[in-house]
Write a structure and sequence with these properties.
It is an enzyme of class 1 (oxidoreductase). By secondary structure, this protein is α/β, with parallel strands linked by helices. It contains 11 helices and 14 strands. The structure holds ligand NAX.
Amino acid sequence: SGNAVNVTVTGAAGQIGYALLFRIASGHLLGPDTPVRLRLLEIPPALKAAEGTAMELDDCAFPLLSGIDITDDAKKAFDGTNVALLVGARPRTKGMERGDLLEANGGIFKPQGEAINAGAADDVRVLVVGNPANTNALIAQRNAPDVPAERFTAMTRLDHNRAISQVATRLRVPVTEIKKLTIWGNHSATQYPDLFHAEVGGRNAAEAVNDDAWLRDTFIPTVAKRGAAIIEARGASSAASAASAALNHIHDWVNGTPEGDWTSMAIPSDGSYGVPEGLISSFPVVCKDGRYEIVQGLEFDDFSRERIDASVTELGEERDAVQQLGLI
Ligand code: NAX
């Protein structure tokens, strides 16, 4: 139909894609009143698998799904797109150095940024899921100079949701009691899940936990290393939880965060909290009227400050590396 929102998913034939597409088509991305048209981008060897997924999507007869296009051409996939979920990326393989990883992903995210710049809709919103997500988002953003920079974001919502789940379990309260949690920095092992500004049933979460050793030696590493723990247990990396977090990220960006709460998104820094301007770093954000704003005025002790700085330093190093490679 004419008023459907165009949603592009890259890496559509991958495992996150498989968990994501059915929920987008059933209304979990933009709500139960918004028809969607799916654009699936894949590399040639995976096109047939993407077609198989599209057959299954057809077989669901989703009332909100107004069409599916499948292509290996980024220009076509992003033409007129309103929401772009960049999931497909080059994974790190054995013996690969960080520079090689960044270069291989530059080969994906530079042309995708250019294609978004050339053809996306004026209101385009981009979420990068594929790792290294923050720096892949930076590459795409810097190659799309005509799109407002703030439309390029990367996903730390899975880390955010993991942290909420860990605290709720520890305190034996429902997840709905946990508010104002923040993931700071990079979606990597250096990320900092912040309980000092979070609330549990209106009370400060760090005080409610009241166990510095747990916070430092269990909570933070459990959240940061949860991806590896899932691989160890499941024999495959997080997929349905990652897809769910991607839906949460876009849903809140478009429809707003609940009153009295905030969420975590990796976004181009405006210099807040000493994060160098332009780095795509995770912050606490409130979303309203389709826009996000960084929550201001939070104060840190040395423990939090050092952790945020360490993760931001890593992001700066990744940016310098992709700059040297000529990707930005
Ligand atoms: P899969 O390997 O199952 O799927 C990736 C898909 O991307 C493949 O079908 C591949 O053909 C496709 N692809 C590769 N290059 C492409 C290109 N240039 N254009 C379009 N498609 C392309 O990986 P999956 O488990 O789905 O994970 C996807 C990405 O998400 C990975 O980079 C992964 O590291 C990342 N993750 C990010 C998370 C986050 O919180 N930000 C958490 C989950 C996940 O680990």
